[in-house]
Every structure is written in structure tokens, then in C-alpha cells.
Amino acid sequence: MTAASPYSFAPDGHGTKELHLVAVENFESWLETQSRRVRTWIGATGFAAKLGDIALVPDPDGGLVSAVIGHGTARDRQRDRFLLGGCRRALPAARYKLHHALAPDALAEECLGWLLAGYSFRAGAPSPRPDIAELVVPDGADTAQLQILAAAEVFTRDLINTPAAALGPEELESAAMALATRFGADMSVTYGDDLLYQNLPLIHAVGRASDRAPRLLDMRWGQTGPKLTLVGKGVCFDTGGLNLKPGASMGLMKKDMGGAATVLGLAQMIMATGWPVQLRVLIPAVENAVSGSAMRPGDVLTSRKGLTIEVNNTDAEGRLVLADALALACEEQPDALICMATLTGAARVALGPDIAPFYTHDDGFAQRLMAASARMRDPLWQMPLYPGYQTMIEPGIADLDNAPSGGMAGSITAALFLERFVTDGTRFAHFDIYGYQPKPAPGRPKGGAAQGARALFAALPDVLGL
What we know:
By secondary structure, this protein is an alpha/beta fold. The chain folds into two domains: 17-141, 3-Layer(aba) Sandwich (Leucine Aminopeptidase, subunit E, domain 1), CATH 3.40.220.10; 149-464, 3-Layer(aba) Sandwich (Aminopeptidase), CATH 3.40.630.10. It has helices at 27-32, 36-45, 74-79, 104-116, 143-161, 169-183, 194-197, 201-207, 247-250, 258-273, 318-330, 345-351, 363-376, 410-419, 453-464; strands at residues 17-22, 54-58, 64-70, 95-99, 134-135, 186-191, 215-221, 227-232, 234-238, 278-288, 300-302, 308-310, 336-341, 356-359, 380-382, 400-401, 428-432, 436-437, 447-448. Strand 11 and strand 12 (308-310) form a beta hairpin. The model has no long low-confidence stretch (mean pLDDT 95). One of its GO terms (molecular function) is manganese ion binding. Residues 313-320 form the Cytosol aminopeptidase domain. Its EC number is 3.4.11.1.
């Protein structure tokens, strides 16, 4: 028994089993609605609806007739998400019809977690299609949208999880091109030394040391409606450059293109849903390598916008490539500009791996994002673009410093740096994401993860007036 995809819902049919999701507070009332035989069996198993508990109910011949999953207490459900998905692989591989007492948002969360729990990744080969439990199209759920969200998350996860040897700037371009082709989008690419001729000098400076040519990917979709531009950091591997990272810090640097992977996933959601927008996706795709042509600490670079930057640490390269892309984006005066990047370790120190900080001066946008974050169970937190720290990024020898000394407020100063390349009055938000799940959790295996994309997908239609 296998579905067409572990990330889709199954049709109802012969052999479907019942799947009951029961919270502690509803356990006794649920039990009263069951047959005497089921009540006796549940009592014999000791099932009490504790979080993650599973009771398999047999028919008189010993075959499976239904399963019951404990949904825990309200406190349990507040502390984690996608709890139904956490039980998917523990269930026998059968087709199930969900019985529940969930509100619409909670149902959407649990169904999405179920789909995402089907994810697996194996380097160098297509991910094996697991023989795991399937869920029949749930009553009351927007299954088409849930499958769009799941497919986009899978796309993002696959890109982040692919080792850097198999996913450099060229392969990231190919993935973006395939997405563009699938949805009828246009894409242009500026390569290598042409970046200099097209006035994208910072992207060139960061990527020139690698034998994998740097490039800017520019994808466009939609002819009418508000202009929405997504910019994603596409550093396909980050050695730190001449300020070489220690080995322990370099081990996860295949994920340094997580911003690019996430905006591509968000773009996939938007195009699959058919939003009436003029969508543009800009990805500076580079490898920060070490060679005789690498940029040096102390170099002063001139950006597309004309601002000069003193390079005080070649490992603060992400903000450099994003600076040129943001300046380019603003030349078309977008109605909303989103930047996503695995930018600073400081963000992880402040908020840990689960919560992505974002920065914006638009209070209305921030409020909508926080509301969408809670509704979509996609954790975000607004951080301040504190003007008092502006002097920290002003070195004197140049307009800007890419790596202020002292190590304090690192995520904020990075956001302030990026803001200098955004035209005043532009509705702008920057997300300093981690892009990785450090240990397995319900619906989230260890590895690449999208952050902020679902919250943006829920908030942007209101922001853009769609």
C-alpha cells in the first residue's frame, strides 16, 4: 500500500481504517461514544490520551480496525507542533480516516505535519518512497493548499540538504530554472565577470575566488498586480574566505544557501496558488572560497548603490551579495521587498534554531506577520532596527563596515547594514533564518528546514491588498 506521494492525501476507499485523535481533556467523553468492546480494549492497553500514545484496536480476527492517538494536554500542544505527524511513522502502513475535535487552524496544522512527516532525504539518489501510513482527505481541511505548502517545504528541504559538491551556483541555477519552466516564469542569469559589467561588484567580489562562477539569478512571473520581490542569500558553501572558519563551524555550510532555498519555496507556493502579482526572485548564487583571487580583510569595495564597504571579515559575505541584489530590486520600486538569509550566528544565540527573527519598520506588516506566524505555527519574532547602533557599522575609512568588532548585536547590525541598500519608503522585511532542524521533531526530521515562508504566504495577501 503506497500513495502517489507521501506529501499528498489519499482518496477514501475499501480498507480504510479509523484514526482517532483524542486530547486528554476529551478522553472520557470520547470513550463514552465507543462500543463496549473498544472501551474494554482501550482500558486493557492503559491508553489515557497522553501525548504521542498510540492504541491499535483489533477486530475479532486480530486485524487492525482503528488506531487512537493521544493528543496530550493543551500545554503539550502549546509546547510543540505537528504532533499528529510525529506519530505517522509509528502507525502501521494503512490508509486512515481522521476523526477529531480540532478547530480549523489546528486541523490544518496537524494535517500539514502529517504530510511533512513523510519526508526523507538520501544524498546521491532520489529519496526512497516510504511505505508509511496514509491519510484520507480530511473533512474541513483545505487539502489543495496543504499539499501546495508541503510540496514547497519539500523543495526547500531538498535544496538545503543536498551536499555542496552536488549543489553549487550552477546547480542552484538549474533548480531555479526548473521551477521557472514548470510555472511559465522567465529567468535571466548574469555570470562571472559580467557581474562587473552589469554593476554587481559585491556579488563578483565574494564569488570570484571559486572556480564555480558566481551569478545572479533573476526570475520573473506574472504580468499584473502589485510588485513583490523576494531576495535570497545563495551562498552554496561558505569556507569563510581568507578568514577561514574552523572545521566545526564549516560542517553545516552547505545550508548557507537556505535563504535562496526558502524564497524559491515561497515562490513555488505563490505560483502554484496563482496569486495576481508581479513576482520577482533575485538570488546571488556564489561560493565563498579561498584562492589567490579571494577578497582580503581590509579591502574596500564599492557596491552597486555606490556605498563603499570595508571588509573587516571575509566570513561576513552574505550581507555583501545581498546588498547588490537589494539595490537592484529597489530600482523597480516593488510594493513589498522580502530578504531571507542564513545570515548571523547572533540570531541563533538570541532566539535559538526554531525562531526566525525578522526586521521591518512597517508596524502593520509586522503585526500581520506575527499573527500569521501563530496561525501557521511558523515561529517568528520581530527584532528592532535600532538606530542607536548605526555607528557600529560606520568604520570611518568607508561608508560601511561589513563586520563590526565586539560581536554585540550582530543580527541587528547585519539588518541595519542591509537596510542601507533599500530605498527609503520601501515596504521591506529581512529574515535572519537558520534553515536547519538540529534534531528530529514531529514533522521535522533533522536537516534542512524552511522558516518564515508559510507565515509570509499567509500574511502577504493582506499586505499587498490581494
